[in-house]
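Quick one - first record:
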Amino acid sequence: MNTRIATAVMLSSALALAACQKKAPEELPPMPEETPVATPTPTPAGPAVGSMEHFLAAVGQANTVVYFDTDRYNIDAEDSAKLQRQAQYFSQYSNVTFTIEGHADERGTREYNLALGERRANSAKNYLVSLGIPASRIRTVSYGKERPVALGSNESAWAQNRRAATVTIN
């Protein structure tokens, strides 16, 4: 008899649960519309204004260095064209500060070459100032013969090392 009662209770419970079941809606809701995802417009990833890469791209590698004759620090016609190109850049980007590095070849004493490198850097700086670039934006440093770009004890190497190189700081 217990099994009959238990079976009856289970059947009535199942019927009661079935009666509580939700009916399916007669009409289904519309599918959600796809909203377009805003994709950011990619900006050209170029070098930052004032960076050395930006300066090189704007004036060209060859126009960042002026070369000098042995024991000289004067600006010749070729040098003035390079410095005019630099001045155009620095006029356009007035927040850029920069350094002019003076260098010498390996001949001569350390002290002599440091002084010569300083005269070369100042010569380039003074030319840029004469073109309207504020002196406050230009720093000079002399490395003398301490940072050669060409190793060797011949005229070709010496000619490459007698230079004033412009390097941006920003």
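second record:
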Amino acid sequence: MKVREDYLREIKERAEKALHKKAPLGPDVDLSEFYLCSPQEEVDNVESISASLREAALYAGVELGEDKGSATYLQVDRSAVYQKIQDAFQGKLEIMAVSEALERYPELWEYWWGLIPVDADKYTAFSEVCPMEGYFIRVFAHQKIEVPLQACLLLSEESRIQSVHNLVILEEGAEANLITGCASVRGNESGVHIGVSEFYLGDNSRLTFTMIHNWGENFHVRPRTVVKMGNNSFYSNTYVLLKPLSSLQTFPQAVMEGENADANFQSIVFAKGNSYIDIGSSLLLKEKGCRGNSVSRVCAADSSQVYTRGKLISYHDEAQAHLECKGILFSREAEIISIPELEVHGAPGSRLSHEAAVGPIEEEAVNYLRSRGLSREEALSLITRGFLNIDIPGIPAALRQYIDEVIRLTSRDVM
């Protein structure tokens, strides 16, 4: 007990010293300009959740319903308001507020801030000094959860900060598909979302993770994510952002400590308005047979500015990975800046590669589709949709229709 108390005291002290530490990437946000978000009451059933909250969750990829998903976690502002595991999945997994998990299982403190330094920057520090819940998910050994897990983090209040710390553990041989939606409720256009997420993947485990963001135009968003991977583990990460916001900066990392670990990152971004977006991923290939891909698809319109970063780091001769960034500019005022990094340390047999391309939609392709009977708007929409290639298993049909409509309307606006 004393060891844990000493550890927590050290963590808190480090965080307090880093509260004004600027992050190396992305515009600096003065957190003192925003209020802390409020607690909300827990509900027993979906019918008690307001229509505005259900709508916000839906357009962030989470469909709230008693029979939706194998397990669902909903947080509004700083409170876990709804938690549900379907009867068929009882005993196969756990999903709950992270504070409840840490209290119930003292051994989980060994995972807390185990992958991300609490003093990495002011955002990680703030999430420790001013914790506002987060979700805990554990899939037990050799359990294969075919129906998606759902976790939704909503911010309903104007000009507030939501800082969450999530912990996900897949034990040996476990498999799951997790959809996380983060969004502001309609009419809430200003705020800050800080999301610290630590993922632990055991040997032979598989996790498909999708994060969909749907924020207001004056939001600042700072996800901080690290994934630790065991032998023969698989991790797939898809990030989707289709609405304008003030700024986003995220650079998740997969640490492949087990042999034959396989990590894949995919970022799908349609930047609009004055959005400042800085995205990327880092793959640390440490053992024999490690492999991975980092792919970004970016459309930039209006006066948006997008940085796409990727870093591949290899320490083993029998490791390989590929980095790819492709972008389409819809405006003379928009910018896409691609920054690839390849590092090899004492492993001359490593195979790392990168490819980048930025340009406009080819008129030849538009004219071909128009010759087949499509209007120019329909042609642009079809090409854009194909370029973004949004094929995410488990997302609601209404969200798929919404994504298509966003692309169609944006294509019409940039004609």
